[in-house]
Amino acid sequence: MSLQEFWDYLVLGVMLGSLYAVIAIGYTLVYGVLQLINFAHSEVFMLGAYGSLIVLQLVSPGDNPSVMASIGFVALAMAGSALFGGVTAYGLEKVAYRPLRRRGAPRLIFLITAIGASFFLYNLAGKLFGRDPLPLPEMYENREIFSLFGAGVNITQLLQFATAVVMMVLLDLVVNRTKLGMGIRAVAQDAEVAGLMGVNIDKVVSRTFIIGGVLGGVAGFLFANLNQVSYTMGFIPGITAFAAAVVGGIGNIRGAMFGGVLIGIVETMTVPLLGDEWRSVSAMVVLILVLMFRPMGILGERVGRAA
Amino acid sequence: MSTVDTSQNLTPSAAAKLRRTAWYRTERYTRLWAMIALGLLLALVTGEQGNTRDIFYSITHTLTGVNLWVCLGATVGVWALREFAATPIKGAVSAARGSAAAAAGGPVGSLRARFQADKRLRLGAYAVLLVLVLVVPSGLERSWQTVLVDQIAIFALLAIGLNVVIGWAGLLDLGFFAFFAVGAYSTAFWTGRLPVEPPVVLNNFWVIPVAVLTCLVCGVLLGAPTLRLRGDYLAIVTLGFHEIIYLVAKNADGITGGPQGARLIPDFSIDFAGIEYTWSIKPLPYWYLLVFFIVLVIILFSRLEHSRVGRAWTAIREDEIAAAANGVNTVQFKLMAFAIGASTSGVAGVIFTSKYGYINPEVFPLLQSILILAYVIFGGMGSIPGVLIGTAILVWLPEALKDWVDPSDRYMYLGALLVVMMIYRPQGVWPSRRRQRELKLAEEGSGDADATSEPAGGKN
């Protein structure tokens, strides 16, 4: 691998990693407050992509939109994906998880419910929107705008990276600086005591799901912008992002960001070294290696303690 | 002090107004909104198939069609019945139940007690069941026979194995199907159908012990590095393990045959003491073979459940630290659970591969690992009859739905069923009694119902 190739793939890896990081945050937030692997988060991601597709098909950008129009389309698509993601996550919590939480069901039951919900949602999407993959309508003319260490960066990649970074910064601010964030951290640390201290646990959990859903939905849009929209698109990125969350230390928001970028880089670097077909294997091998030596992930777990 | 005493200028009627909730937020009407939402969802679920040429097709058709009104009518009707006619219905139901219980409850209860007391009666019942299991399938249609053999029986074997890992030892394994792949590829290897040559080509029957051994070793190999992990961490690592096995099968062309997999795997055959018989593609002979192995495994495992090993697993599941403190070698028993659980997939893998005649990586998708976990939980983890019933129902359901709904929608209904089931009957169709008690205790807030209740590395 030449040095130039190294930089090329590193840039690609960081871009992909930023996307994984955003999805991983969705897993980690929910895990933080409920200690639940939200398997259905990959469907939130997928429905977010469909949200942007629906909005874009409704406004149907024509050929060669102006710069302002392009920005508008991107913003609309993003809003659509955020809306779909947020609503799906909210509904999921309300319909599937809240009854279980009320009853104090063991976590395995949550997991199976999540799996069931995931099956239901992705097949429902396949039924409603058709089962062939669809590209997003073109919102802008994609071209290379600058190069980083000799690696070209085009608008799509920049959009992806910049959005991911902005969302992560915003989320970090929300969790660390706002009252809602304090509530999230309190519930993550000890839900029972937080309840006694006057935190409305239902509200906090519900809003945590919405935040995770919005992030996941927008990530879905960014992913679809790079690839395509399909009803099965959530599964593999979902699992990889979950692995990223675990690598960073599940429940730890900065850990999820770190893990996401790490897994993104490892996956991308595998392509020139071993070949494209070994990508997911490398992510899983990293996961297992990390857990063997640091069973709690690199940065350790828990929203309440580490964020 | 500038505290405003609000009670002074708040008249009782104003206070009452503040306390009052708007009518649409009262419980009765929140339930109505929920039912309307359910009706909408139901209409979408049962509506027409969408297509990618016009992604709005299905939604607009549903929203303008008759189906919407039928679904809304049904759900709102249920709401109205429940809200306004609950008392008479409840009275009638409890009266009916009372008379039914009076008619049937006594005999059923005493029958159960007699079953538990009388060993001969129990064995007799098992024998009748076995005869039924052996005789009934020959009366079924060919397609159902195939479902029974290729799916239900194979998955039943797998589910019994997974039940050891998750139901008894409480280790959350999301990559169980990978062992099945190991068993299948061992068959292909030992019958000489992979690019790498085996040292000797074995008859399929001899492959079974070899495959079981391979799966045992794989179980230990997976278990060893992950023993420090608990609960959710174990889940993702096992998931990763499956993904690795799958991708190795797919990509290591020189060893596993790559995406083409292995073909022309020979059938089971006996040529021993004058008996010569070959299992061909007919499902029934395989059914008898599978029933033999299932019964064997059930007998072995139920002996195990009530042995020292089984009790050690239960102890680990309920509280690992307490188990270790009481002298249970947790490492050894956890490894054992992984290995023993994996061994049934060896058998299943060999039989499946011989029956099918070919394998490729697409037979072993990650989704199957997750599905099989759902079978075990659905049936009632920890209980062998429960696991069998759960597998039978969940495998049968998509096949049965094939005639009623669009085949590609089947898993949607399966998912919905899982969610509803977990909300209303989390212990499964036929739970083990111990598990039922654990769940009840957990819901009352005393004790944990599974080993996944604590984060990895313990609470810190």
From TrEMBL, chain A:
InterPro entries assigned to the protein according to its UniProt record, in alphabetical order: ABC_transp_permease, BCAA_transport_permease
Keyword GTP-binding in annotation: no
Membrane topology term: Multi-pass membrane protein
Transmembrane segments: 6-32, 44-61, 67-92, 104-125, 145-175, 204-224, 230-250, 257-275, 281-300
Pfam name, any one: BPD_transp_2
Keywords: Amino-acid transport, Cell inner membrane, Cell membrane, Membrane, Transmembrane, Transmembrane helix, Transport
Localisation per UniProt entry: Cell membrane
Family named by the database record: Belongs to the binding-protein-dependent transport system permease family. LivHM subfamily.
Identification of the protein by name: Branched-chain amino acid ABC transporter permease
Species assigned in the record: Streptomyces sanyensis
